[in-house]
2-alkenal reductase (NADP(+)-dependent)
Amino acid sequence: MEVTSRYVTIKHHITGSPKQSDFEVKTANLFLSLDTGSNDVLVKNLYVSIDPYQLNRMKEYSASQMASEYALAVLPGQAINAYGVGRVIASANPSYIKDDMIVGLIGWEDYTLVRGKDVIMIRKLDSTEFPLSYHVSALGLSGLTAYGGFFNVCKPKKGETLFVSAASGSVGNIVGQYAKLFGCYVVGCAGTKQKVDLLTDKLGFDAAFNYKKTTDLNSTLKRYFPDGIDMYFDNVGGEMLEAAVANMSMFGRVAVCGVISEYTDAKRRAGPNMTEVVYKRITIQGFLASDYMNDFGDFLSTTSDHIQNGRLHVIEDISHNLESIPLAFEGLFAGDNIGKKIVQIADN
């Protein structure tokens, strides 16, 4: 017996901002009966993550494609893997049985055949305490990225100041909430009044501003941080990184999570004043969520407790149906999403 699986792929390598017309939906047939001893698992995908870094995989070349197994190049016509939640519908692996819920590396497709050698990239979901989508957002890699970047790269001290760019996005909003719970002064920036209001009114940021209404980032940051920025969580790069470094305190720390301003326009690259970096002894460190997989247990326990007790809000932006993935992905680069962008492919 077979199932027909639709999958989203690129028609060609993408240059500049992605458009719906860059993608197409194809189909493949998958056998429900798996070879005994293969350790393969067939998963029906329910929720999948939509992330900006995927654009670098879709380019003809990006330095990221050579740096991480999670960022390997995607070829036209090829299925695109992504983090998500699904249900096992067939298994030749003793660790999984039919109807087990799993989370991990699946794909922008109806069904994913997880080969035996790749089963390490998924894990069983034993808890039904939270909505399944939470395991793609705050309890998934977005949450781990925020947790690892803030606690391990920023290395906060109670009472310090933190600036977060793209603060209403999938990672930034969680970073700001962790920082407030830790006892920091937190300012975020976002691109609309609705997002700015969310940061201060619901998520507890001390202040926030609309960077699109700001003509001078340097002076704006100076106003919010008269004594300097101790930590900057960077999701943007470019001019924002320049302005943040110009306002850093002595021994400030910059956690570089993403550079979305450069993903669609390499000419927009901007660099910090290196004299500031040297004489203020500023640490600038890039990182990936995979760097902190050994901390996943602590992260999951801590974050689950915060959510359970109402201390941390989960902000999700969920679209529906596989065909909506190209529009959802395009929208990331137009600033359409608030919180974690997810597509729900199926109900169960």
User: Anything to note?
Assistant: The chain has a mean pLDDT of 96.
